[in-house]
Amino acid sequence: MRTGISVEEALELVLAEAKGELPVEEVPLKEAYGRVLAEDLVSLVDHPDQDDTAIDGYACREEDTLGASRENPVRLRVIGESPAGRPFAGRVGKGEAVAVYTGAPIPEGADAVIRVEDTRREGDYVLLFAPASPKDIRPQGDDLRKGEVYLRRGDLLTPGRLGLAAAMGYPRLKVFRRPRVGILSTGDEVVEPGEPLPFGGVYNSNAYSLLGLVQEAGGEPVLLGKVEDRPETVLEKLEAAGPLDLLLTSGGVSMGEYDVVRKVLETAGEVVFWKVKQQPGGPLLLARLGGLPILGLPGNPVSSMVTFFLYGRPFLFRLQRRTDPPYRSLEARVLTPFKGAQGKKVFRRGVLSFEGELVVRTTGSQSSGVLRSMALGNALVVLPPDRDAREGERVEVIPLTFVL
Description:
Keywords: Magnesium, Metal-binding, Molybdenum, Molybdenum cofactor biosynthesis, Transferase. Its cofactor is Mg(2+). The protein contains seven helices and 27 strands. The protein is an alpha/beta fold.
């Protein structure tokens, strides 16, 4: 077992546990939002499938309209119309025009379009007060070309990508199964919300914070309830967790007499590492039990959320083969001081905003027991070991993607 390792070493070891590949399932397009593509997608069609108009107006021959102006309008005979879905079947000849509407195919013989705002209809004729132009004609395949890849394996299906898949002609998509993530809370003091709160008790906030974080990262949370601080009960609960891709425990991994999760895993499983040089979340643990990766998160609410975001989220992204990064780093100017920690990399909670430039201010108390800071904050302020951040300095910030 390794102990007292750096944040970077811990992340590398966690990602190494994201082995194998999730099963693939096929879902209807209407159920694919938020899933991760399991194959490259080539367009089944050209889009548009012919030259069409980007505006409402009249399609005609550009050479017939040269020199048109308010003072000297050009007069063309209107021989038909071409709404989207009902293309004009004839051919546009000299001195002729066809009324076209956005998305409609350009009739044969026409090579330009004039906006309806620059015309006036007079019975079977139209007056043009400006030359027609080809610039508002969208050529065939301008958006999509049949046979070209536009979405990749590992792409998250966002609203835009879901629409793109539909435009490419796909009614169903192959996606990776959502990773199943067990969430087990430990501690004699933990009580479910809605139950009477005994003296010294705390409501089980960690389970529901983690549930949201797992769902937001593309996983399927499996709530396993809570377990008392008794080694035999903890082991029984862990072994009965069921088929999972990752198991999260909260609490029971620190130095106390009743921190039994670590002790159980040291005996019955294999602990990869314990304790990371960071704040909050130093007692983080990574273990295996019967081949199942287990992330032992600290029990303090902020520590639990921060460590999942920094390690559990990248694990799920790697398992899903996602092409987007699990989080990004930016730089912002500090509006309030942030305190560092000796020998530890620090992740403080901040409020990131744009005020002519990116700036960040504290959420208030940085105690790892103040869960309110994770509701108020939208970013983590990252400080290297042994460094404070004074007002006006620039620091690294990681936006909390479940907020921004």
